[in-house]
Fold:
Amino acid sequence: MIFIDGDGPIQDFAKWMVDNEIPLGYDREDTESIFHEKINEIFLKSPMAKYYHYFKRMYDVYPLNEVNVLTAVGNHWPTFHYKEQATRNKIDALSKLGFHEEDIIVVDSGNDKIQYAIDSDGHANTLYDDKWSTIVKWEEAGGHGMFVPECYLRFEEAGHADRA
Structure:
């Protein structure tokens, strides 16, 4: 099975952050507080990523249920309501880009993706992701990881390669 991360390979979440003057970084309180303020925009207004068409074609061409979106909503939300809203926004945004809701798996964090590295028959699954540390953990768990650097490069250009 093939899994594609939602924000990075499919949506350019980092560009949305730059366009909205949100500080680029990872686990930064100022960034997270702006996410909370923009809860009704987050994910919904992120543009298509550079490789969107490649991944959408893969999704459309491969057999049914062979390609899924596996994306993390983040575990920094102050209340359950915020997290649920962010999750719903993520699913709605990916659905508008042509991915079926039943093919979108939302987990709390990148670490929670790792459980999907091996299928129930013991076969390695493939993950396309823009977070290097997730790729490393995926491969340590026995899966095949494919790094998509676009968002990482945007963070690196802004001096915040701590996103990796």
